Amino acid sequence: MNYFKKIIRFAKPYRMYAVGNIISNIFYALFGTLSFISLIPMINILFSDEQEPITEKPVYTGVLELKDFVFDSLAYFIQNTANNDPSKTLLIVIGLVVILFFLKNVSNYFALYFITFLRNGVLKDLRNALYKKTTELSLSHYSEKRKGDTIARITTDVLEIQHSFLSILELIIRDPLTIIFTIGAMLFLSPKLTLFVFIFIPISGFIISVIGKSLKKKSDRVQNEQGYLLSILEETLGGLKIIKGFNAELIFNRKFSDSTKRFFDFSNNLVNRQNLASPASEFLGITVIAVLLWYGGNMVLVEDTLDGATFIGFMGLAYNILTPAKAISKAFYNVKKGDAAAERVLQILETENNIQDNPNAQEKQDFSDAISLENIYFKYEDEYVLKNFSAKLSKGKTLALVGQSGSGKSTIANLITRFYDIQKGEIKIDGINIKDIKQSALRNLMGLVTQDSILFNDTVEENLKIGKPEATKEEIENALKIANAYDFVMNLPKGLQTNIGDSGNKLSGGQKQRLSIARAVLKNPPIMILDEATSALDTESEKLVQQALENMMRNRTSVVIAHRLSTIQNADEIVVMQEGEIVEKGKHTELIAKNGMYKKLVDMQSFQD
After folding, report:
1. What is the per-residue burial (b if ≥16 Cβ within 10 Å, else e) of 510-534?
2. Which residues pair with 386 in a beta bridge?
3. What is the pTM of this model?
4. Fold of 370-608
5. Can you tell me whether residue 18 is helix, strand or coil?
6. How far apart are CA 462 and CA 458, in angstroms?
7. pLDDT at position 497, please?
8. How far apart are CA 512 and CA 74, in angstroms?
9. What is the pLDDT of residues 438-452, one digit of tens each?
10. Domain 2-349 has CATH 1.10.540.10
């Protein structure tokens, strides 16, 4: 229940539906109780051999005589309405019973009507909050997280909370009220007989709580395993080409079947424990009924302190407690399951984003001077991957970063865009520390083209508009021309409206990369960051993409992380990196003349080509 106190805030916008549900449930419990009491006059009419008519209107004489006053008043009303005609009397009593049951079911419908809006509203807002948080958290948060586990939390865990949320409203409003009204009516009919119910309720509650104690732990195991299962599925779909290429189907089939086997075992343990709720509560209820039958039967047949019609009505009320009691026990188990789901969901919602805007961060809207990196130190975990790195890039110039894999080149791009925060040193734009610029404003100044062309399962136009949602068709076409992508896009079946498939897989590598460049061009930022944008391409595609990059970089400030050194010969400054440190700086011709690390890298690539 602790976690649901935090989840309950998502219900605040829908509190009017909660009020409607509560009011409807009050009437449901009330009419449900009255419908059983209304059976007593009908039984009296059907089975009483000698029923003396009540000629005078009953007078209230005190609480102790309240039961007699109520039933005598009802009998007086019915007799006078029916003019002592047994058939009419029976018809009136049956009509009363039908009306009460009708009102009970109408109340039930409205209770469900209101709770539907409440549940689905909470589901919608909770998923929106989770998705928003998922996009806000830094990249470092996901470096060790399984994507499938995050998907499971946003889908199945939220659904579990939705169902448990309904259970809580039943647990605290509907079923307890039904039991309270029913016990009130039973006390009204026979206080002595009702005592037996109170004796057995604590015993039943204790047994139910013992059964439910381990449910949260068992549910947590099921939900964690479901997250792992979805992760395997997501990785399989993403890496299907490699799985098939290496004939690794058996390996992944075994991983998946092992996970489904664990899920099978955990689910069986959970559901079987949960399935105890209904039979256990029903058996306990029937035990109470059996005791009442024995004791109440003696009151009717032996002691003659209770009439038969009242006893039958009392037994109906006693049985009426069973359904809400079963529902409460089931809701109790659902809450235990939902508690585990709520904990997993709140782990995401309450995760602090380790990259925050400073309180006085500014909305910087232009770039006028230079980007400077001053004595940068950075580590992902324990060891520094960048040490004492310094560089300056003036407006309109191109800075190229080269070096072997793992030398820290891509890390520089991640730090300038503030996907990660540095441990020591400063990164400044126009003399302002990027931590003092709002993240959204900082990234508005930058365009990003990565080695992996990240495209989405949508049309060409919608993929490009991610860079500029309000772009006109003319602007889109100009961006495509600059990126050398116009001709192939226009030759697609539906041109700009062609769906390019999951991750753009309907296109070639070169086509995908040119679309990525067009997207960055359309955004038209003053600073461009190119992270090994041509490394995964064949020679012909590389030439087209390289030409597109040169078109894009013209008159722009660019940081180029280069794998193919032939692409950065015209850079204003080339920084050669090794193990996170700068080993050489200068222009292409200067570095060749030094005959150092850069010259070795150029010679190696020339030999490979």
Report:
1. bbbbbbbbbbbbbbbbbbbbbbbbb
2. 378
3. 0.71
4. Rossmann fold (3.40.50)
5. helix
6. 6
7. 92
8. 82
9. 988 888 888 888 877
10. no
Distances (CA, A) of 55 to 45, 47, 93, 381: 17, 21, 19, 93
Tokens at 45, concatenated: 């009419």
Query: Amino acid letter at 492?
Result: L
108: nearest Cα among 204, 14, 178: 178
- The separation between the first and the last C-alpha atoms of the chain, rounded to the nearest angstrom, is 65
The structural domains of the chain, with segments of one domain joined by +, span 2-349, 370-608
Tens-place pLDDT, residues 387-419: 999 999 998 888 989 888 778 888 888 899 888
What are 337-390's pLDDT values in tens digits? Answer: 677 788 888 888 888 888 888 888 888 888 888 999 999 999 888 888 899 999
C-alpha–C-alpha distance, residues 280 and 208, integer Å: 8
CB 161 within 8 A of CB 342: yes
Q: Could you check whether 2-349 and 370-608 share the same CATH topology?
A: no
Q: How far is residue 74's CA from residue 92's CA, in Å, rounded to a whole number?
A: 11
List C-alpha distances in Å: 383 to 139, 379, 430.
18, 6, 30
- Sequence-separated (6 or more) residues with CB below 8 Å from residue 376: 386, 388, 389, 390, 415, 422, 424, 425, 426, 427
Between 62 and 530, name the one with better pLDDT: 530
Is residue 400 within 8 Å of residue 568, measured between CB atoms?
A: yes
